[in-house]
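Thread: quick sanity check before group meeting

JM: Hey all, I'm pulling together slides for Thursday and realized we never actually wrote out the predicted structure for the chain we discussed last week. Dropping the sequence here so it's in one place. If anyone has concerns about the input, flag it before I start.
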Amino acid sequence: MPDMLVRLYDLPETSSFYKKLEEKGIRILRPMTPNKSKVLNWIRENFDGDWADEVSTAFSHAPVSCFIAYDTNEREILGFAAYDCTYRDFFGPTGVAIDRRGNGIGKALFLRCLEAMRDEGYAYAIVGSVGPVNFYEKTVSAVMIDGSDPSIYKDLI
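JM (edit): ok, ran it. Output follows.
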């Protein structure tokens, strides 16, 4: 799957979007390193061990290059998104619990990571091996990077 490029200096305004989620008891937060095992275990249980391995790198950065969606009422993780894990300037991996999809959680996690990348000095971000191309095009006007298929993950063993 190809990669996509995002202009971080042209992100949409998000404060009202995050506020609507918080009104539903969903917070997008950067987990602290003491939460590393909980986050990685949740990823392993809901997605893939390879993704958990990637995200483990996020906890070695300062600040942590990962965000989670957390249900403050149920006190549970609903999703995650990370950046700068396998390669610098790359967004991903990301995932939302199957029963919580379609509520804007994935979009919020994606946007929060992009905002963090922008705030850390990046002008552009790369979304590696994109799945839902239309989502990225619609959300942040991401464009395909010619010649990026196969992406950075071509040599996984």
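AS: nice. The CA atoms of residues 144 and 156 lie 22 Å apart. DSSP finds five helices and seven strands in the chain.
JM: adding both to the slides.
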